[in-house]
Design brief:
Blueprint: E1 6-11, H1 15-26, E2 33-38, H2 41-50, E3 55-59, H3 67-78, E4 82-87, H4 92-100, E5 105-108, H5 117-147, E6 151-155, E7 161-164, H6 166-172, H7 176-179, H8 190-205, E8 210-217, E9 223-232, E10 242-248, H9 250-279, E11 283-288, E12 293-296, H10 298-304, H11 308-311, H12 316-319, E13 321-324, H13 334-341, E14 345-346, E15 351-354, E16 360-371, E17 377-386, H14 388-402, H15 412-429, E18 432-441, H16 443-450, H17 452-468, E19 475-480, E20 483-491, H18 494-509, E21 512-514, E22 517-519, E23 522-530, H19 537-553, E24 558-561, H20 568-586, E25 589-598, E26 604-615, E27 619-621, H21 627-632, H22 636-656, E28 664-667, H23 670-674, H24 678-689, E29 696-701, H25 702-706, H26 709-722, E30 725-731, H27 737-743, E31 748-751, H28 753-758, H29 763-778, E32 782-785, H30 791-799, E33 804-805, E34 814-815, H31 816-820
Parallel strand pairs: 1-2, 1-3, 3-4, 4-5, 23-24, 26-28, 28-29, 29-30, 30-31, 31-32, 32-33
Antiparallel strand pairs: 6-7, 6-10, 8-9, 9-10, 11-12, 11-17, 13-15, 14-16, 15-16, 16-17, 18-20, 18-23, 19-20, 21-22, 25-26, 25-33, 25-34, 26-27
The structure holds ligand C2E and magnesium ion (2 copies).
One magnesium ion (MG) is lined by residues 729-730, 750, 786.
Length: 826
């Protein structure tokens, strides 16, 4: 195939030259030129305006234009057409000028060898084409390289940059001009430089491809993370140089960093959770949605007997085997319920965990669902702990609260509860029940003489015997002290209770062996029956108690049914009264003596005799417990006479024993003073004991005198005449204290202890006490303050110049022997 014709426009006005050139070109053997010829510039310009000319042969000496001027006009319109100047010999300077301005070449007309012309033009056309192709290729390459997101850095064999693309400029923050001639390592962040250069060195040395990641530090200090690949260029222009691609991986890196930070945070969180789970006291176990174990903490491992790894994936009931402590049946799985109902589920009360080896734990706690991020349930966690100890403690506490510590029998609280239940049951079944109130006779003696340890053992032994006498459905309870109560939960008739009572009396009749002692104790039993003797717990209990007092008063070691006419107060009175009679008969009374002192000197000036009753069962009883009853039943008369005689006898016996006895004051009750023959009685006692009347003082209360003032005045006058001293006791508590003083020949006023008690804190009491002391002084009566308990009271009384005092501050009432110790020898 022949190559396309090249259209040549020959611009030459010399016909000879023109013909020669044309002939040479068209005559060329390959016939590849088509020559159009013009002689004027104007024609040339017109032709060029039509296009299709590839080469212009331009002579510069035309008729209508010459020199460089002609060239410029042609060049302006020639477009891509090559312009070869035909220069006249001797005007090469203009031709060179044209070359500078874009002409492709020039020939000097005289020297031109027209035979070579076609070849020369061919060569020119070829090289021009090749250059254009190269330029286009370069432009393509640059466009491609600039479109690449990878940065490209090309260096020559010296390592100096010869090319960088747009992406590289963006990554490095440097312009093309700034990169040219620099080394690739310029942009490495100083912190990465040492590492990267070491890697580079190794790669170059072993002629391996170099690939690494590092940071670019831009001139504005921004940091760009990059991945760099470097390869050697072994061919072409820059053989021995290298090309590096630079990928901006900042985004990937920051994701990587964030991911790593998240991973680390997750790890830390996991660690924390693990440490927490392993250091808490609770057991924690989790399952997946299907109820397979996913996790156990250390406590859960210990309590279930399963190691974490071993348990993982197993069905929960296999690892966490719980049963109901009461029924021993397998208990429902709490995790399953928590998952199914998506809520926290508490374990059933009384849950017992069976460890792998069969050991049991009473456990308590709950299961909760575990949710994923979308809020969907993915499993459950069970938290539990061992409550064996606390559950045992609760049972123990409940037992202790309801049982007597000493005997282990139910206590009053439990009895009350059972009695209420039994009453409800009896009511519904129209049955009766009986309550037996038991009191040990003379238990006090055992305690006092053999000590509490023996007493306690005896109570335990009694408890055993009592329990043996009743059915298991009955309740034997220790009420406290030596009192027991027995509830017969169901009886057909009251007589059934009597049978039990008799059985009890017989059971106790046998002596009890406590250590080396053989002890006899008897019982007094009171019985009340529901519903006849009361329909409330309190009434039934109270009436059994009352009946018991009756039994005691009736001679002990017996039982007594409650009857409607027993009133508890009267029964108690009867009981005391019976006791007092016995006390008189058996000589159970004694006197204590409380010193009276002179407040100014502290000297012992007298004593007050205070009666005590040593009851064999109860022990020492103070007068408050029996004097009032003794007065009511008249027993105070013989008791008072005994006290008076005993006081006189004792006083006289101290004298005879060579002691400097002080006068003794004896309390006389209203009943006594009104008694006919009282004065004679006093006289007889003085006579019998031999005590001089001046050593006896009688303490009377205003109440006893004001009842019949005439008679009182008479009696007191006679006593006074005998030489006996008289004291007004509890002064200030009555309504007629002052008229008493006026009417009766009183020697001593005893300020009642209620005023003395508060005189330091109560201004009224202090005023009354001062007034009484002042009045006593003016009326020439001795004044004694009762109940002096502390030094503040003493200081006040001293300051007020009270004569005497009596009270715990100086001495408590003392047994006769102890009081004698205070008396100096005569
Ligand atoms: P009383 O005659 O006023 O006897 C004083 C009472 O005060 C005594 O009580 C005595 O122990 C108590 N006492 C003494 N010093 C203090 C003190 O510093 N502070 C306190 N808080 N109390 C003190 P006791 O012995 O219990 O006698 C009570 C009452 O019984 C006597 O009061 C008297 O009225 C009556 N009583 C005592 N013995 C007999 C008696 O033989 N025959 C009669 N009929 N009554 C008597
Ligand atoms: Mg008194
Ligand atoms: Mg008194």
């Amino acid at each position: 195939m022949s190559s396309p014709l090249t259209t040549i426009l020959l611009v030459e006005d010399d016909p000879t030259d023109a013909a020669r050139i044309r002939q040479s070109l068209t005559g060329a053997c390959d016939q590849s030129f088509r020559v159009e010829s013009v002689a004027h510039l104007a024609d040339a310009l017109a032709r060029l305006g039509c296009g299709g000319v590839q080469l212009v042969l331009l002579a510069l000496d035309l008729p209508d234009a010459q020199g460089i001027e002609a060239f410029e006009q042609v060049a302006a319109i020639a477009g891509d057409a090559l312009i070869v100047v035909l220069s006249a010999a001797g005007d090469e300077a203009t031709a060179r000028q044209a070359l500078e301005r874009g002409a492709s070449d020039y020939f000097v007309k005289g020297d031109m060898d027209v035979h070579w012309l076609p070849r020369a033009l061919h060569h020119l056309l070829e090289t021009t084409k090749a250059r254009a192709a190269l330029r286009a290729s370069e432009a393509r390459f640059r466009a491609m390289s600039d479109a690449s997101p990878l940065g490209i850095f090309v260096s020559d064999e010296a390592g100096d940059c010869v090319y960088t693309n747009a992406a590289y400029h963006a990554i490095s923050g440097l312009s093309f001009a700034e990169t040219l001639g620099t080394k690739w390592s310029t942009a490495i962040h100083p912190a990465d430089r040492q590492r990267v250069l070491a890697e580079w060195h190794d790669a170059v040395h072993s002629q391996e491809a170099f690939r690494t990641e590092f940071r670019f530090l831009q001139p504005d200090r921004s940091i760009v993370w990059t991945r760099v690949n470097s390869a050697a260029m072994n061919e072409g222009l820059h053989s021995g140089g290298r090309v590096q691609t630079v990928e901006d991986i900042t985004e990937r890196k920051s994701i990587e960093f964030a991911l790593r930070a998240a991973e680390e945070a997750l790890f830390e969180e996991k660690e924390r959770a693990q440490v927490t789970l392993d250091s808490i006291g609770d057991a924690v176990l989790s399952t997946d949605l299907l109820g397979r174990v996913t996790y156990l903490n250390a406590v859960a491992e210990a309590m279930t007997g399963w190691a974490r790894e071993e348990a993982r994936g197993r069905p929960l009931p296999e690892v966490f085997h719980i049963i109901d402590g009461k029924t021993r049946q397998s208990a429902p799985n709490p995790a399953q319920l928590a998952i199914e109902e998506n809520r926290i589920v508490g374990l059933a009360a009384d849950s017992v965990l069976l460890r792998r080896d069969g050991v049991e734990y009473a456990i308590e706690d709950s299961a909760a669902p575990i949710h994923n991020r979308d809020g969907r349930v993915t499993g459950a966690v069970i938290v539990f702990h061992d409550v064996s100890e606390s559950r045992a403690m609760v049972l123990k506490m409940a037992h202790l609260a309801q049982h007597d510590f000493l005997t282990g029998l139910p206590n009053r609280m439990l009895l009350t509860e059972r009695l209420a239940q039994a009453m409800g049951l009896a009511r519904r079944r129209c049955k009766q029940l009986a309550l037996l109130f038991l009191d040990l006779d003379c238990f006090k003696n055992v305690n006092d003489s053999l000590g509490h340890a023996v007493g306690d053992q005896l109570l335990r032994s009694v408890a055993v015997r009592l329990s043996a006498c009743v059915r298991t459905t009955d309740t034997v309870c220790r009420q406290g002290g030596d009192e027991f109560v027995i509830l017969l939960a169901e009886i057909e008739q009251p007589q059934d209770a009597a049978v039990v009572a008799e059985k009890l009396l017989v059971a106790l009749a046998e002596p009890q062996r406590i250590g080396e002692h053989e002890l006899h104790v008897t019982l007094s039993i009171g019985i009340s029956v529901y519903p006849d003797d009361g329909t409330s717990v309190d009434a039934v209990l109270q009436n059994a108690d009352t009946a018991m007092y009756h039994a005691k008063a009736g001679g002990r070691n017996k039982y007594q049914f409650f009857t409607g006419n027993m009133n508890s107060h009267a029964v108690r009175r009867l009981f005391v009264e019976t006791g007092l009679r016995r006390a008189l008969r058996r000589g159970e009374f004694l006197l204590h003596y409380q010193p009276q002192v002179d407040l100014a000197s502290g000297a012992l000036t007298g004593s007050e005799a205070l009666i005590r009753w040593r009851d064999p069962t109860v022990g020492l009883i103070d007068p408050d417990g029996f004097v009032a009853i003794a007065e009511q039943c008249g027993l105070i008369v013989p008791i008072g006479r005994w006290a008076l005689r005993e006081a006189c006898r004792q006083n006289q016996s101290w004298r005879q024993a060579g002691l400097q006895a002080v006068p003794v004051a004896v309390n006389i009750s209203a009943v006594e003073i009104r008694q006919k023959g009282f004065v004679e009685g006093v006289a007889r006692i003085l006579d019998e004991t031999g005590l001089a009347p001046c050593f006896l003082e009688l303490e009377l209360t205003e109440g006893s005198l004001m009842h019949d003032t005439e008679a009182s005045a008479l009696v007191l006058g006679e006593l006074k005449a005998m030489g006996v001293k008289l004291a007004l006791d509890d002064f200030g508590t009555g309504y007629s204290s002052l008229s008493c003083l006026r009417r009766f020949p009183i020697d001593t006023l005893k300020i009642d202890q209620s005023f003395v008690c508060d005189l330091v804190s109560n201004a009224d009491d202090a005023t009354i006490v001062s007034a009484v002391i002042g009045m006593g002084r003016n009326l020439k009566r001795r004044v004694i303050a009762e109940g002096v308990e502390n030094s503040a009271q003493l200081a006040f009384l001293r300051a007020e110049q009270c004569d005497g005092g009596q009270g715990f501050l100086f001495n408590r009432p003392l047994a006769a022997a102890d009081f004698a110790g205070l008396l100096p020898a005569a």
